[in-house]
Amino acid sequence: MKKWIPYEWFVARRYLSARRRTGFITLIAWISILGVTIGVAALIIVLSVMNGFESEVRSRIIGFDTHIRVRSYHDEGISDPAAVLEKIRGIPHVIGLSPYILEKGMIQAGDRNDGCLIRGADPGTLDEVSDLSRNMAYGRLDLGPVPRGDGRTLPGIVLGRYLADRLLAEPGDVVTLFSPSGIRSMLQMPPVKQFIVTGYFETGMYEYDNTYVYISNAAAQELFRMGGRVSGIELRLDDLYKADAVVDTIEKRLGFPYYPMTWFEMRKNLFSWMQLEKIAMFIILSLIIMVAAFNIISTIIMVVMEKTKEIGILKSIGATSGGVMRLFLCLGVGVGITGTALGLAVGYGLCWAQQTYKFISLPGDVYFISVMPVRMQATDFLYIGLASVLICLVASIYPAKKAADLIPVEAIRYE
């Protein structure tokens, strides 16, 4: 039994088939398909590359910071971190907890000094919430007491790579930290504490590598005269996209004066800008498909002009105006679907090749990665495919309406 095919699709396919009189029209149709293919492939490739960079930046930022940070209002600190940890521990999706301290300070190495952000961490639980140990570029992550050659011991400190370069500090050197927050009057000397450099870390993010230093919480509490207080609690989740749900649970358990912040809220401007940039690139590159859509309009108009007699005959033997309009809409949608399918295939193939063979490299001294990252998302393929076919459909409406409005008598009068 033969499969039934609507006559609109059948006639539309025949109109695009190469014939002696319509070969030029067929060529223009294939040019239109090529335009849609290029536009769709460009969108897939660009958005996949942007997804790759976004994923790299997010993983590095979150790997250095955390998924959720619990602080107190007015940054007064948490005076009883053990009690807060006990209330948070056991919340679903929480796999790591660690108290931290974050304050501004000054660092001096020899005759060189600079401003820095001093990060206090609990050496025992730091690996639960941070990738710092995996980002050590030189030396070791040792924040505990480190023996010196003269028999004394000093607490360890690790520096960001670029900060260490400016200070000319090397592992084994002694550096001094100053705490401006401990000054109560102009006549008072700021709290000072010496540390021994145990290594450098490099996250690939200049903001961190240029300003941050890590010391133990005990040393930071002594330096900043905080007693037993900490700045807050860091949490790591098994799924970072569950952060909002975990925050709701934390707020119910802790209440005032504590408030949790998700990884997105801590870097809201950056991640919002990334999303906005992706939307802007989608709109801009869609113009390529719109240019191809104009070719579709010209193709259908030329088919209408070429097939005026045939349209008149179709309507005279019973075809309705709606049927004729659907015929030419099928013509435009057929071009759009073909071009879209080819574009999706080309985009996927090139992205897969970059993921597999990494043939496009990046200069390591400019970017924090050596290979162009690519991350394909099914939703991008879906939205781009739907947008492309919709643009082609809209472009087909005007010439299809003109074909449907042809009067049969006028179309075949001189034939």
Give an overview of the whole structure.
This protein has 2 domains: 7-61 and 271-412, no CATH class; 66-266, no CATH class. 52% of the residues lie in helices and 19% in strands. It has helices at 7-16, 23-64, 81-88, 126-129, 161-167, 206-211, 217-223, 243-254, 263-266, 268-306, 308-316, 321-357, 378-404, 408-412; strands at residues 68-72, 94-109, 112-121, 136-139, 145-147, 153-160, 174-178, 192-201, 212-216, 232-237, 258-262. Helix 10 packs parallel to helix 13. The chain is elongated.
Roughly how many Å is the radius of gyration?
33 Å
- How would you characterize the largest beta sheet? 6 strands, mixed, barrel
Reading the helices and strands in chain order gives HHEHEEHEEEHEEHEHEHEHHHHHH
Distance between the termini: 38 Å
Unreliable runs: none
Number of DSSP-assigned strands: 11
Return the structural class: alpha+beta
List keywords for this structure.
415 residues, alpha+beta, 2 domains, six-stranded mixed beta barrel, 14 helices, elongated
Brief write-up:
The chain contains 14 helices and eleven strands. With 415 residues, it is α+β, with helices and mostly antiparallel strands.
Task: Furnish the topology, listing elements before pairings.
Elements: H1 7-16, H2 23-64, E1 68-72, H3 81-88, E2 94-109, E3 112-121, H4 126-129, E4 136-139, E5 145-147, E6 153-160, H5 161-167, E7 174-178, E8 192-201, H6 206-211, E9 212-216, H7 217-223, E10 232-237, H8 243-254, E11 258-262, H9 263-266, H10 268-306, H11 308-316, H12 321-357, H13 378-404, H14 408-412
Parallel strand pairs: 3-9, 6-8
Antiparallel strand pairs: 1-10, 1-11, 2-3, 2-7, 2-10, 4-8, 5-6, 6-9, 7-8
Helix pairs in contact: 1-12, 2-10, 2-12, 2-13, 10-12, 10-13, 12-13
